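Sanity check. The docking grid for adenosine-5'-triphosphate depends on where the pocket ends up, so I'm generating a full predicted complex first rather than guessing from homology. Inputs follow.
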Amino acid sequence: MTLEVKQLSKSFGETNAVNQLSLNLPTGRVLGLLGRNGAGKTTTIKMLLGLLTPTSGEMTWNGTTFHSSKVKIGYLPEERGLYTKSKVVDQLRYFGKLEGMSQKEVDEAITYWLERLEIPHYRHKKAGELSKGNQQKIQLIVTLLHNPELIILDEPFSGLDPVNAELMASIITEEINKGKTIVLSSHRMDQVEAFCEYVCILKNGDVVAEGNLNKLKEEYGYRNLIVEDTEPIKSVLNTNQIDFERKQQGIYVKVKTEEEAFTILNLIKSETGSIRKFQLLEPTLNDIFIERAR
Ligand SMILES: Nc1ncnc2c1ncn2[C@@H]1O[C@H](COP(=O)(O)OP(=O)(O)OP(=O)(O)O)[C@@H](O)[C@H]1O
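Predicted complex below; grid placement will be based on this.
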């Protein structure tokens, strides 16, 4: 049970927007599709949605050729795609019917989702009268109304205030728990890390990292040793020519092994007399992204 993409490419004239993209996403799992601006994320999503024809390559869903018309897909675009002059309820009914839902099914789903997103009072408002964040919520209802099996979320948190971002996060978690297969594209590494078991990082159309996030972290080869940001510790590191970075949580030193971390800690202890606290943390997705996608 997998979404499988094999050597998928898309060129626009001379530009290789996506180049030989291959990935495996087991159904019921979440993939973070990452990359800097222009890396090829939207082009990949558009090929999944059937909006762009690949130049070459293959996509399969549970072993058979993937076609957007045969898989129930929910897509949350980064740009709003609502009819601003039409009432919320009318366009939700319209989108639901386009997905083959009956009047009863669509009305039940609209009531459920308006309540779930805490906006039942917007039912009869025109979409254009709603704030950007509330339009995003309506767009999320369009995405989930027909109970899709594959959900594609492009920057789902953009434009949401912290309370609505929490609500969005809890809905994504619910969909994950329902066993939905999700592709999430975002520039926010912390959010991707919170939801995604798998990642695919694109750089100028090429895949530069792909697979299980924990495995990628293991393969990355570095961990972060964090010690207090004090003058004596900085001085020890400088004297011993150990590279470090100052962040809000303290001084970060990249180490390859636990032994290397303890060698540095012993050095600090012997030269400053004590170490009040330290942490040895696994690399973050942000570390991997910066190294690979830069
Ligand atoms: N219709 C098009 N015609 C020509 N070039 C295109 C077209 N669509 C995308 N491209 C090019 O393909 C490359 C990938 O673009 P894409 O929109 O997929 O990037 P992205 O990763 O989604 O970027 P962003 O994070 O900025 O949205 C870019 O170089 C872009 O200019």
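Relevant for the grid: The first helix runs from residue 41 to 48.
Also worth noting: The mean pLDDT is 93.
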